[in-house]
């Protein structure tokens, strides 16, 4: 029975093709607006995630000693027991303690000076730090050093009055680390290069040395031997097993009294921002669909007024109220479906046009002040994953279902009026 009623509804719509096209046009605009605005946020989110870095950075949790505004509050420290406690947490792949060198940081070559943060780590844990060697090897022996990617480019000529960064080949040129102790005595140590790290925002301006060397330099600088009972690390890198466990681990570590954060928390904030943005822009497109719903309701009301006598005839030959209701609801739903289908096609065409235009647009070189698409887009065009407008299959299905539902709901009241007409009154209508 339903198929016969649906066939009759389609036939009724085709009798007024011009009205169908104009009414569906409103749904088309609303559907396309929803798809394009939501797809824009998906493209921007993909670009933002691409700029964060590799998936390894999303499993890093930087842990620091706890902080409290009350100076007398006793806070947990990053001691040996803390490292053991972190390693026992569920979902932890590795725990990498780090020790900052407190009494040095200046670098010297024969002609140039530089500065870098010097950090000691256990050489056996280097494979878990998400690092790669751009030159040399990712390994450390006593007396060796791994240079962050930007450290070789941050030297300068101390005799020059005009500061200009100078690049030094740290793999071939002798580089000394300069330390001072509490009495002002200077000590120079030759940094034997093990390698230069590939770009990594967390370590670009660092020099990594074996942790036993860092302990020795701090002992010399403070003139105090290390007390293992009170020894603490500067920070600890906790590596989660996967991206999904990073945020729960961060929260668990914070509950232990430590400060914890990393790219996973940043990514979570970004995702929250884009979710809110998606709802807001989707709501703007929804307003267009709401306006289209009034158009569908008006069209269905006019159709009922024009076909009142026809409704009376159908009831006279045995059509029930539910049959009449079904016919007009199917008609309204089809108007929404046709408009939604057309909106999907239009949005796909516009999205492809935008993505191709951006891909083919000239991007100015940094510092040239040129124009182009990159002049007004707040994203790095080189990091667009799949384009600026990313229309996902589930978004298409959602928009098509929403358009059909809007059309059906808009036709509910007119269809109810048609179903409630009495046969005699309907037949008397001219």
Structure description:
It is a single chain. It is built from 11 helices and 13 strands. With 430 residues, it is α+β, with helices and mostly antiparallel strands. The chain folds into 2 domains: 2-54 and 269-428, no CATH class; 66-257, no CATH class. Strands 6-10-7-11-5-2-12-1-13 form a 9-stranded mixed β-sheet. Strands 4-3-8-9 form a 4-stranded antiparallel β-sheet, with no helix packed on it.
**Terminal CA distance:** 29 Å
Mean pLDDT, to the nearest integer, reads 84
What is the number of helical segments per DSSP (H or I, 4+ residues)?
A: 11
Helix content: 40-55%
Return the domain count: 2
How many beta strands in the DSSP annotation?
Answer: 13
Question: What is the N-to-C order of secondary-structure elements (H for helix, E for strand)?
Answer: HHEHEEEEEEEEEEHEHEHHHHHH
The best one-word shape is: elongated
Please give the largest β-sheet. 9 strands, mixed
Task: Offer a few descriptive terms.
430 residues, alpha+beta, nine-stranded mixed sheet
Give a brief outline of the structure.
With 430 residues, the protein is of the alpha+beta class.
Secondary-structure topology with pairs:
Blueprint: H1 2-14, H2 17-52, E1 60-64, H3 80-87, E2 92-100, E3 104-108, E4 113-115, E5 117-121, E6 133-136, E7 144-147, E8 176-180, E9 186-190, E10 192-197, E11 206-210, H4 211-222, E12 235-240, H5 243-255, E13 259-261, H6 263-306, H7 308-316, H8 321-360, H9 393-410, H10 412-419, H11 423-428
Helix pairs in contact: 1-8, 2-6, 2-8, 2-9, 6-9, 6-10, 8-9, 8-10
């Amino acid at each position: 029975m339903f198929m016969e009623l649906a066939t009759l509804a389609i036939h009724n719509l085709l009798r007024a093709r011009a009205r169908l096209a104009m009414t569906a046009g409103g749904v088309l605009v609303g559907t396309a607006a929803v798809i394009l605005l939501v797809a824009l946020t998906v493209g921007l989110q993909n670009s933002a995630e691409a700029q964060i870095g590799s998936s390894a950075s999303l499993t890093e949790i930087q842990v620091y000693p706890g902080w409290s505004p009350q100076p007398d509050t006793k806070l947990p420290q990053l001691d040996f027991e803390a490292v053991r406690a972190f390693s026992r947490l569920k979902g932890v792949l590795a725990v990498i303690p780090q020790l900052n060198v407190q009494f040095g940081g200046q670098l010297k070559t024969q002609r140039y000076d530089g500065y870098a943060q010097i950090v000691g780590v256990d050489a056996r844990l280097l494979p878990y730090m998400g690092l790669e060697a751009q030159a040399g090897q990712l390994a450390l022996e006593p007396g060796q050093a791994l240079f962050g990617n930007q450290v070789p480019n941050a030297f300068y000529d101390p005799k020059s009055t005009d500061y200009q960064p100078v690049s030094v080949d740290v793999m071939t040129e002798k580089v000394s680390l300069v330390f001072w102790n509490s009495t002002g005595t200077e000590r120079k140590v030759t940094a034997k290069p093990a390698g230069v790290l590939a770009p990594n925002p967390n370590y670009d301006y660092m020099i990594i040395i074996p942790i036993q060397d860092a302990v020795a330099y701090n002992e010399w600088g403070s003139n105090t031997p290390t007390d293992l009972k009170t020894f603490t690390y500067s920070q600890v890198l906790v590596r989660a097993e996967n991206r999904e466990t990073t945020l729960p681990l961060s929260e668990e570590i914070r509950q232990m009294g430590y400060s914890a954060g990393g790219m996973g928390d940043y990514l979570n904030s970004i995702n929250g921002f884009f979710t809110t943005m998606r709802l807001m822009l989707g709501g703007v497109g929804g307003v267009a669909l709401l306006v289209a719903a009034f158009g569908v309701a008006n069209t269905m009301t006019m159709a009922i007024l024009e076909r009142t006598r026809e409704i009376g005839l159908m009831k006279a030959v045995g059509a029930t109220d539910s049959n009449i209701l079904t016919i007009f609801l199917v008609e309204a739903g089809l108007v929404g479906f046709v408009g939604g289908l057309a909106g999907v096609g239009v949005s796909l065409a516009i999205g492809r046009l935008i993505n191709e235009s951006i891909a083919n647009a000239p991007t100015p070189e940094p510092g040239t002040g040129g124009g182009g698409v990159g002049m007004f887009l707040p994203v790095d065009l080189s990091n667009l994953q799949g384009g600026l407008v990313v229309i996902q299959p589930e978004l298409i299905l959602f928009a098509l279902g929403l358009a059909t539902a809007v059309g059906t709901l808009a036709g509910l009241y007119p269809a109810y009026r048609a179903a409630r007409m009495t046969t005699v009154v309907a037949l008397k209508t001219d």
